[in-house]
Amino acid sequence: MSASTRSAIRQAPSPWADGALLLDALPIPAAIIESHAGTLSISAHNSRFLDAVAISTAGNLDGLSAQCLTGEGLVSRFLASWFACPDLADCDLDMRDGSGVSARFYQLKLAPLPTEGGTRRALLSVVDRTAEVQAERSLRAEMLRDSLTGLPNRLAFTEVIEAAAREPTDKPGHAVLVVDMLRFSRINESMGGLAGDELLITFARRLISALRAGDSLARTGGNEFGIVVAVRGTDDALKAANRIQDAMNAPFRLSELEIKVDCAIGLALMQPEQDAEELFRNAQFAVKQAKASGRPEVYEPKEASLARRRFSIETELRRALERNQLSLNYQPLVDLKTGEVSGFEALARWKHPDRGEISPTEFIPVAEESGLILHLGRWAMDSAATTLAGWDAEAGQRLPFNVAVNLSAIQVARDDITAMVGGALRSSGLTGDRLTLELTESAIVQDPRRATRVFDALKALDARVAMDDFGTGYSSLAYLQRLPIDVLKIDRSFVSGMMIDPDSVSIVRAVLSLAEALGMSTTAEGVESRELATTLAALGCVSGQGFFFARPLAMADALPFWRSRLRSAERRAY
């Protein structure tokens, strides 16, 4: 250190003057600071302290007197904070000296020493934390960066959203866009991981080219990217989303291949005091809707509320199945010529202890989406077979009707239907002809080969097979001709319109003629009036079900209903 620098520090007479010898033993820069009559002075210091002060203040010390409290040096700025503490309490402060890459970082601490003759003293230590701070910053930058694309990652994106939320309200609002690259896993599997990484990098670069000044982009997931954009309302946000989607429509070139990559974009508008995570989840929810619609979608709270209800139902449905809280009702199928009951269709019912009756139209789709349909379907099959066997035992004879059980398309695709039906027959002691398995057209169209194997296996068990809701799907005549279908169930949408729509009558007549030509029986759904029942019987329909005959009955009421129809003196066609 230069002589001019050393002379700038005034050594005040003090019993602490010999403290320099002790301070020299400390491994860090240290000095004893005194305050007397408004004047600051250094009574002792070690050589490390002089070096640290010289570096931080560029030699501009001026004796550290009271006037230094307004100086710009590192120690002077810190002592200004200390001097404001009348009780000379412990003080420590992290300070930066300089800016940019040349900035240095220090931690300055003051510890009070005994006061003598009105002079306040404290031990000042200076710790250079530059290397530590730089290491922390480097680590944080690494933690906030996606290593593949170089973009900010999911954690950094949350901070970007939070920073946008703190902007003044007089500025334009913000929206969060989530861009999901579709079919990425298929590309990754077919072309390899390196090609997948190349595609992600190229995709990210193209996203960057589609952004405006001020927009922020991050990679928030494997094939998911988040963008914060400044917008003035929903229309402006949709314009930004459409602009990005248009930019991604051009094919991507990987090696010698050109690949068309579709993307789904969901967006959510930032609301005052909204949590960043919640806003991001809202945009992710909108992505799911965008995948279904094929266009950018804006988050709608109502849709999210329905999604939360579906999730709640899924959780409670799983619990209800474990606790056996569901039941089966049985809707009669009535022979339209004789008026007798020819069978019952088993229908799942759920009476929630708090919510009351939950419609099958609500919980069945949730069961299919979550995979609970496998558990539900097995339970329904076993329960229906056990109930029918119980009715036989109660009547003391083999009753002249069967029970129909619905099979979901998901269940047909994932479960061992043959083992399930065979197990229900063995445990109940029934023969296969006592059961009718109802499948929708979608179960056949999704996987015709598997459907054919399932149909053949069911026929090997002597079970009857019915195609439910016929006419509403996409099955071809080739399926009807090739598959061993016993019954065509005409959908209620055609039956209910017969009395007012001539086209519906023509469709029903055509289905009945087709079934007769193929040797199949027919059942009309949704028969709600005597006039409908009479018309269907006249057209040649074999059986019907609907509110005109009976609503779905509890298990205890089904067998008495069959007996009442059997004893009825009125045995005429409807």
Tell me what the structure shows.
With 574 residues, the protein is α/β, with parallel strands linked by helices. The chain folds into three domains: 3-130, Beta-Lactamase; 144-299, Alpha-Beta Plaits; 311-565, TIM Barrel. It is 45% helix and 24% strand. The chain is built from 22 helices and 21 strands. It has an eight-stranded mixed beta barrel with strand order 13-14-16-17-18-19-20-21, surrounded by five helices. Strand 9 (252-254) and strand 10 (257-259) form a beta hairpin. Helix 11 packs across helix 12. The longest helix has 23 residues, at 373-395. The chain is elongated and about 120 Å long. The termini are far apart.
